[in-house]
Specification:
Rossmann fold
């Protein structure tokens, strides 16, 4: 059976991608990256809980240099994280400005290449990523074009021609929630917040997109730990 490695941030997209990947392949490993992001420990905890739920191996890869070379608000606690209004989540100018505040240099490119090395080493042919149509509008490294370009490079850089797969690349966040509901994802383990507090802040862009998607998909979010806002 085809083997996969799943990139796991512990967020909505990666949790649903993991659940779907289990139907399409044998998942050899869940990989989580710590580059000093504010939510690192919460992401690691969420990813570990999801991996344990599905009885899968989970590994954390430490790449501190990535956080050291960037001024992104994801890493710098003194920098303001974007807290957009619901109405402006998909407004192009506002979305681009928000994306610039949380951009990390070549993050997804780096993640994919590290994961591809793990994949080649263990005989896996796929790296599964939770990209999506909604965020691809502001983040080019979430796009179908990026996946195609990455696969062109991996054809030459891996002996077994590892490929990047994203089952969610054409889906909105609400579509991803619906897919997760069909796959019976344990949403209580998901951490989709830029911050690393006791509960998800409910105000940052990542939280707002999750909350909007849950509402559109009729997911009961009482099981999900948001702060009161």
């Amino acid at each position: 059976m085809l083997k996969s490695i799943v990139l796991m941030s512990g967020g909505l997209d990666s949790a649903v991608s993991l659940a779907h990947a289990l139907r399409e392949s044998e998942v050899s490993l869940c990989l989580t990256f710590n580059y000093g992001q504010q939510a690192a420990q919460k992401e690691i905890e969420a990813a570990a809980n999801l991996a344990a739920y599905y009885h899968l191996r989970h590994q954390v890869v430490e790449i501190p240099f990535l956080g050291e070379i960037t001024d992104t608000a994801l890493v710098r606690s003194e920098a303001a994280l974007p807290e957009p209004e619901f109405a402006l989540l998909d407004e192009p100018v506002a979305a681009a400005a928000n994306a610039a505040q949380v951009w990390v240099p070549n993050r997804n490119g780096l993640f994919i290449n590290i994961a591809a090395a793990f994949a080649e080493a263990c005989g896996a042919r796929q790296v599964v990523c939770g990209f999506n149509r909604e965020e691809a509008a502001a983040f080019p490294d979430n796009s179908a074009d990026f996946i195609q370009a990455a696969n062109s490079a991996l054809f030459y850089s891996t002996k077994n021609q590892v490929k990047v797969i994203s089952y969610t690349k054409l889906l909105s966040k609400a579509d991803i929630v619906r897919l997760g509901m069909r796959r019976k994802v344990p949403f209580q383990y998901v951490w989709s917040c830029y911050r690393g507090g006791e509960k998800m802040c409910g105000r940052c862009e990542s939280c707002l997109r999750f909350k909007r998607a849950a509402k559109e998909a009729d997911l009961n979010i009482e099981q999900i730990a948001f702060q009161e806002v």
